[in-house]
Amino acid sequence: DVKVTQSSRYLVKRTGEKVFLECVQDMDHENMFWYRQDPGLGLRLIYFSYDVKMKEKGDIPEGYSVSREKKERFSLILESASTNQTSMYLCASHLSRGLVNSPLHFGNGTRLTVT
Amino acid sequence: QKEVEQNSGPLSVPEGAIASLNCTYSDRGSQSFFWYRQYSGKSPELIMFIYSNGDKEDGRFTAQLNKASQYVSLLIRDSQPSDSATYLCAVAVTGGGNKLTFGTGTQLKVEL
User: Fold this and answer.
1) What is the least distance, in Å, from the CA of A49 to any CA of chain B?
2) How far apart are CA B78 and CA A40, in angstroms?
3) Nearest residue on chain A to B44, judged by CA atoms?
4) What is the pLDDT of residues B36-92, one digit of tens each?
5) For residues B36 and B19, what is the distance between their CA atoms, to the nearest angstrom?
6) End-to-end CA distance of chain A, in Å?
7) Mean pLDDT of successive 10-residue segments in chain A (115 residues)?
8) Between B98 and B20, the higher pLDDT residue
9) B105 vs B86: CA distance, rounded Å
10) Nearest to A99 among B45, B100, B104 (CB)
11) Helices (H) and strands (E) in chain A — how many of each?
């Protein structure tokens, strides 16, 4: 079974702090994604990566950055946390064969609260 | 206009009934369509996908796709209380590589 592990289930940070959300997958997947999920807005793509050291902006990248130094690890960085970044953050991964052949697998999520 | 639209619900059905969940999408070049189930406080899990017009059945679940109408649906037969969850429709858009665009989800409640 594919395992996508997010380092924290709950985080509480203060406004202005630099925040790191970590995600590790154990199935040698090329593609990794960061989504945030908010009531009424659904899942929105922040950033994604198709390979090591490669990153592409999703639909809502403002205020975020990412790092992928190793294939199995994809980190989401909030450079200066703000209250509007309070949300559930979901990491996901899959093989590059295409979504039909390799479904997207999600981690358990990190609920971040910025006060 | 949102790229993927779903009625937020809640959709309430009695146990044993058929639940019908609907989704429309705006990009005519969309090629593959996915249904995810998400229990409260949990992450989404894939139920099934479809990429050809028509019906695709998997156990109690049937996905239906009509590309001309830009419409995809999920039918759940013999609904059980354990089916109570939010159902997310997701679309792989043309030129989007391996990205999915999600709808906001429909909350389903199966009542005893």
Assistant:
1) 10
2) 28
3) A106
4) 999 998 999 999 999 899 999 999 999 999 999 999 999 999 999 999 999 999 998
5) 15
6) 37
7) 88 97 93 93 93 91 96 96 98 78 87 97
8) B20
9) 6
10) B100
11) 0, 12
Calculate ∠ Cα A72-B100-A66, nearest 5°. Answer: 40
pLDDT computed for residue A94 by the predictor: 86
Classify strands A42-49 and A56-57 as parallel, antiparallel or unpaired: antiparallel
CB B90 within 8 A of CB A99: no
If phi > 0 it is left, if psi is from -120 to 50 it is alpha, else beta; for residue B97 that is left
Strand, helix or coil for residue A39: coil
What's the pLDDT at A2? 67
B32 has a chain A CB within 8 A of its CB: yes
Integer distance in angstroms from the first to the last C-alpha of chain B?
A: 37
